[in-house]
Amino acid sequence: MSLSCFDPRFGERMLSVDEALSVLGESLAGMMRTPRSERVALAQAPGRVLAEIVISPLDVPAQTNAAMDGIALAQASLPDAASGEPLSDRGELSDHCELSVIGSSLAGHPWTGRALAAGEAMRITTGAALPAGADTVVMQEQLEYRSAQGEGEGQGEGLIESEAGERVVIEGVTSIRRGQNVRQAGEDIAHGSQVMAPGQWLTPAAVGVLASLGLAEIAVYRPLTVAIFSTGDEVTAPGETLPAGGIYDANRFSLVALLRDQGIAVLDLGILSDDEASVSAALRDAATRADMVITSGGVSVGEADHVRSALAACGELALWRIAMRPGRPLAFGMLRATPADAESSSDQVPFFGLPGNPVATMVTFLQFVLPALRLLSGQQRLAKDEASASATTLAQWQAPRLQLTAGETLRSRAERVDYHRGQIVLDDQGRQVVMTTGRQGSGILTSMLLAECLIEIPAGCATLHAGEPVMVQWLGSRGIV
Ligand SMILES: Nc1nc2c(c(=O)[nH]1)N[C@H]1C(S)=C(S)[C@@H](COP(=O)(O)OP(=O)(O)OC[C@H]3O[C@@H](n4cnc5c(N)ncnc54)[C@H](O)[C@@H]3O)O[C@H]1N2
Ligand code: MOO
Question: Where is the signal peptide (predicted)?
Fold first, then answer.
């Protein structure tokens, strides 16, 4: 396969983020395969990607039922004040009426007797099936029950079982609308309708919906395996003593967390020293065991930046200079995999060499790696209307963009997109605005700790004034998309 990203021009000039995304998309399109699937218990499904079409085997709800505790009745059998007919003995327009209660329909214990006739009602609890002959539920708060002997009068709250000869007085009859407080069978999901399609990310809501269909297990795509390692002689594993000139390995941990959050199986290959031979040996090995390989550090132009040369021996690679900050240098390419086992689905494995500065590692992951993973893991962007779900570009898998108002003046270098880490706060007039999290260096990882969004200051814009509109990439309430 010829990779357009290895067009020699790209080594010369700075790519925009959009250009880099489209080149990446083209490269990955050539290797797209439907991932293999497996069946899992529903409890294991959250965070996985659905691999089958789900057609509803039933109506949800399965039966027409009450949305309130109260009584079920046929609205047409009620006296109608709107018709102007006198409802009381004195000829006044009364707003109450009395019906006889013939029984109870309880959630899990539906009424199995005869249908309701005119002038009759039935006690009913929320979720209980509506008895035949009823189409409307009046809530308990509008009711007063009268026992056959005229004793035990009361609002009836807490009373479940009806007794023989019981009657109920309804207040506010004129406001009762046909079908009120009733949930129709199939009003959420109709029997035989398509509920989900392959590619659906199984969110808490999605597994709830699957459970509501009675499904105990479901087909999901096998998770992708991603191999990661950090590079650099100074990079030290947490738990070890930090040597002079050392720095603890933050990137591997933030990357593992980002990957796991996407349901990815991680092959953690640890830390590699700045040694070309060991980096290329590790890459060769990783390419046979994983669906993608990600490193951090060593992609710039320093003497110890060996990732690029090590990669040249293992595949087809390019160093991109991307007009963004943080994250200007990024290596991308395809590693040759000599499959050592039948698990490997391709003889080419995408590779990302992310920049070593910890914020640059996370920001480039979010811009490029995350969309690539979502694409390769078979996710489909599903929308209520099919037209908006159709176009598949990598950009659609970036964090969602929102327009907010800048709460302070933001400065950037005009020639590249700047991703400031932002927090959404209320200004002194109670309006929602976005502010930076403070110092913005690409080694200031605590700026990501505070970030709820990335403020995108576009190339060509050196200053954005307070009060001006600004686009942000929303990272979600948990700090990741
Ligand atoms: N002459 C130039 N120097 C640099 C350029 C440039 O264009 N010309 N680009 C700068 C930018 S921007 C970045 S980002 C970095 C990226 O360089 P590398 O990917 O080669 O990263 P390193 O040099 O290995 O490390 C950069 C920085 O990050 C620390 N680091 C590395 N790995 C980890 C880790 N796993 N956990 C925590 N911190 C890590 C490392 O110690 C360095 O401080 O290059 C600039 N230089
Ligand atoms: O852009 Mo580098 O990625 O600033 O730290």
Answer: none
Q: Please give the ipTM for the structure prediction.
A: 0.96
**Distance of CA 361 from the midpoint of ligand 1 (Å):** 9
345, 337 contact by CB (below 8 A): no
Secondary element (H or E) of residue 284: helix 276-289
Residue range 65-183 in CATH 3.40.50.1970:
no
Q: Which of helix, strand or coil describes residue 177? A: coil
CATH class for the domain made up of 399-474: mainly beta
Tally the C-alpha atoms within 13 A of residue 418's C-alpha that lie toward its C-beta.
20
CATH fold for the domain made of 38-57+186-221: Molybdopterin biosynthesis moea protein, domain 2 (3.90.105)
pLDDT in tens, 20-61: 999 899 989 888 888 999 999 999 999 999 999 999 999 999
Taking alpha carbons only, the member of 50, 31, 30 closest to residue 40 is: 50
Ligand 2 site-directed mutation target among 17, 300, 325, 367, most atoms within 8 Å of CB: 325
Closest ligand 2 atom, CA of 324? 1
Place of tokens 């480039």: 364
Determine the Cα–Cα distance for residues 161 and 367; give it in Å rounded to an integer.
61
User: Using CA atoms, how far apart are residues 287 and 279, in angstroms rounded to an integer?
Assistant: 12
What is residue 3's predicted lDDT score, i.e. its pLDDT? Answer: 45
Identify the segments of the chain with pLDDT beneath 70.
1-12, 80-94, 149-162, 301-305, 338-346, 382-392, 477-481
User: Read out DSSP for 222-277?
Assistant: PPPEEEEEEE-TTEE-TTSPPPTT-EE--HHHHHHHHHHHTTPEEEEEEEE-S-HH
Same fold: 38-57+186-221 with 65-183 = no
* Protein residues whose CB sits closer than 6 Å to any atom of ligand 1: 230, 232, 234-235, 247, 249-252, 296-302, 305, 326, 328-329, 355-358, 360, 442
Q: DSSP character for 306?
A: -
Nearby residues of 128 by Cβ (< 8 Å), 6 or more positions away: 65, 66, 105, 106, 107, 108, 109, 110
Q: To the nearest whole number, what is the mean pLDDT of the chain?
A: 87
* Neighbouring residues of 275: CB distance < 8 A, sequence distance ≥ 6: 306
C-alpha 210 – ligand 2 centre gap (Å) = 43
